[in-house]
Design brief:
2 helices, 31% strand, 156 residues
Length: 156
């Protein structure tokens, strides 16, 4: 009987160790794919999703963490390698590719402490027509992530 109890305790400890992950890819994947739906609508043609999520002007106050959005569920800067990207038009390529006419940059999603609110920065370039950068805000309502609002950061 003691052996069975010890084995059950050991199995329970093993399950706890394996259930904790360093990166919550499921949540990040949901947010990124919601953001890609927005990008697909904006482009409505093939475009390149830049592989990196590192902000190009991270010193700007809009891009910094704040009291609400201060938690990254994966690395602060990540690539899309471990995520399932579901986009009608987007193709992931490295940032050094020469074909950068229609591009999309999506930052690492930043969450609040409870993982109920999320902020993502997306920057797009439409060939010779310029581009824009915006912050997109999501909230988890009824177990699903919902788009709440957007705020323009820059336009050219």
């Amino acid at each position: 009987m003691k052996q069975i109890v010890i084995i059950l305790l050991f199995l329970n400890l093993v399950n706890v160790n394996y259930s904790q992950k360093k990166c919550d890819t499921v949540t990040v994947n949901k947010i990124v794919n919601l953001q890609l739906k927005i990008a697909d609508k904006q482009f409505n043609r093939p475009y390149i999703l830049l592989k990196t999520t590192k902000l190009f002007k991270k010193e700007r106050k809009n891009f910094k963490t704040n009291s609400v959005y201060n938690r990254s569920l994966c690395k602060r800067y990540m690539t899309w390698d471990n995520l399932y990207i579901n986009s009608k038009f987007g193709i992931v390529k490295t940032d050094t590719t020469k074909d950068l006419e229609y591009t999309c940059f999506i930052s690492t999603p930043m969450f609040n402490k409870d993982k109920t609110k999320c902020r993502v920065m997306m920057s797009v370039r439409h060939g010779e027509w310029g581009g824009h950068g915006s912050l997109y805000f999501y909230e988890k309502k009824g177990g699903l992530w919902k788009f709440v609002r957007t705020g323009m950061i820059w336009i050219s």
